[in-house]
Amino acid sequence: QLQLQESGSGLVKPSQTLSLTCAVSGGSISSGGYSWSWIRQPPGKGLEWIGYIYHSGSTYYNPSLKSRVTISVDRSKNQFSLKLSSVTAADTAVYYCATQRGSFDYWGQGTLVTVSS
Amino acid sequence: EIVLTQSPGTLSLSPGERATLSCRASQSVSSSYLAWYQQKPGQAPRLLIYGASSRATGIPDRFSGSGSGTDFTLTISRLEPEDFAVYYCQQYGSSPETFGQGTKVEIK
Questions:
Q1: Residue A32 has pLDDT above 80, yes or no
Q2: Which pLDDT does position B30 carry in this prediction?
Q3: In whole numbers, what is the pLDDT of chain B averaged over residues?
């Protein structure tokens, strides 16, 4: 069974870049069948899909965030990453990585990122 | 973008009762690409239902999904103590993928 684990900085200053990594175990990120996704949830609020990357390397982003988001994959480390630039307090959220085959099947535990000076 | 509206916002029920949660889409969801998730405090969401009516692996049969087009329903036939949580619907028939705002099922 696939397992995902997020890691990265929990505190980011306004205008800087948020960087997170999702380590995948129990399967290869290079195998087909899944997209590798990021989703976020502001404290006390609902879920927002950020974007995903296919095993081929193709990426798809939420238009509301597209200008600030980059998702990439490191096959040698079996992990994928999220970068979100020019962050503001509105980007404070729990960030989840997940596998996606349409629906989001497997989720990481989530990591809280706070944007504050 | 397809907007999903869930109702009610909060459902107050007792263990053993039946829960009926609604998810209405602003446009038709193609091929019934609609999923339901359960989220408990401090935990990641868990996939319950995909394709509007197919249970995910390991999900008890007291959970069932139905609907098509713009109207979808999640039914919990008899609430167990562990079922009190927040439930989200999500559509993946049209990009961007979107979620509903959630329905909280609380103990009455």
A1: no
A2: 87
A3: 96
Looking at the complex, report in whole angstroms how far the Cα of residue A104 sits from the nearest Cα belonging to chain B.
7
Whether A116 contacts B47, CB under 8 Å: no
Angstrom distance (rounded) from CA B88 to CA B105: 11
Q: What Cα–Cα distance (Å) separates residue A47 from each residue in A27, B42, B68, B100? A: 26, 14, 22, 8
Residue A5 carries which side chain, given as an amino acid letter? Answer: Q
Determine whether the interchain pair B45/A107 forms a contact, defined as Cβ–Cβ distance below 8 Å: yes
Subunit contact B102:A46, Cβ cutoff 8 A: yes
3-state SS, one letter per residue, for A70-111: EEEEEHHHCEEEEEECCCCHHHCEEEEEEEEECEEEEECCCE
- B47 with A47: Cβ contact below 8 A: no
